[in-house]
Amino acid sequence: MATTSRLTGTGLTLAYDQRVVATDLSVTIPDESFTVIIGPNACGKSTLLRALARMLKPRTGAVHLDGSVITSLPSKEVARRLGLLPQSSIVPDGITVADLVARGRYPHQKLMRQWSKADEAAVSEAMRATDVAELADRIVDELSGGQRQRVWLAMALAQETPILLLDEPTTFLDISHQIEVLDLCAELHEQGRTMVAVLHDLNQACRYATHLIVMRGGQIVAEGDPTEIVTSELVHEVFDLRCEIIQDPQSGTPLIVPEARRRVTASS
Ligand SMILES: Nc1ncnc2c1ncn2[C@@H]1O[C@H](COP(=O)(O)OP(=O)(O)O)[C@@H](O)[C@H]1O
Ligand SMILES: [Mg+2]
């Protein structure tokens, strides 16, 4: 069965001023996949996500959304189909949680249109799903990093887009909130949304991804079903880490066990 894709990048050169991050990079996000992007620091994961979300114009090549070159589409049009949770965002001064999440509804609001029931419902559902409802009246600036991360995620969810790009959505979160966020992503994926997330934890990536994209130095070096592509050779090549791969006892997916530096003995 051929993969269909609403979101693709072809022959991309991605750069900031003098710094070229990627050349001739092509990527296909399979529709209704939960695509996870992994790769070492500074390999271009965030840059690729920005290009896919129309936040960075490729120097050459093009990103297509539903067959149109994304930079030719009006930004509000793009924002109704695709949401991006950036790796870091600046919180507007003095804004409350409820007001920040409500900003996710902007692409759905028509000129001169009042706040609608649908807007209200989307905001409260997003706040419920991310467990921030009780923070509604708090000032975002005064929250912990983990709480703030969930508020940004709520804002992206409130946008109610069929495609959602999340850049390190689990950063700053404690382990149970990490799993909560990933389970929520999996649930959204099961409901038919296309999810794309950059993750650092390889084991979580292997568990949740239906399609894994492995990057290094601005290139995709492997992609596919994690169970088929993740090997200790690949992890060594990409992360320069010696490891053993065993089966995750819960999910059956690859579990990366880094080689110990020295033997730990019971008596020491
Ligand atoms: N705004 C920017 N201006 C200049 N260089 C940047 C900018 N953002 C990222 N870079 C550089 O681009 C490269 C890729 O960065 P990034 O895509 O953020 O990597 P990753 O998300 O994989 O850690 C890095 O060398 C980084 O320093
Ligand atoms: Mg990044």
UniProtKB/TrEMBL annotation:
Tell me one GO biological process term: iron ion transport
Task: Indicate how the chain sits in the lipid bilayer.
Answer: Peripheral membrane protein
Instruction: List, alphabetically, the Pfam families matched.
Output: ABC_tran
Q: Quote the InterPro entries the UniProt record gives.
A: AAA+_ATPase, ABC_transporter-like_ATP-bd, ABC_transporter-like_CS, P-loop_NTPase, Siderophore_ABC-ATPase
Instruction: Keywords in alphabetical order, please.
Output: ATP-binding, Cell membrane, Ion transport, Iron, Iron transport, Membrane, Nucleotide-binding, Transport
- Pinpoint the ABC transporter domain residues: 7-242
PROSITE patterns cross-referenced by the UniProt entry: ABC_TRANSPORTER_1 (PS00211), ABC_TRANSPORTER_2 (PS50893)
Lineage: superkingdom: Bacteria
Q: Which GO MF terms are attached to this record?
A: ATP binding; ATP hydrolysis activity
Query: Does the entry feature the keyword Transmembrane, yes or no?
Result: no
Q: Where in the cell is it found?
A: Cell membrane
Question: Can you cite an annotated GO cellular component?
Answer: plasma membrane
Record-given protein name = Iron complex transport system ATP-binding protein
> What lineage does UniProt assign to this protein's organism?
Bacteria, Bacillati, Actinomycetota, Actinomycetes, Streptosporangiales
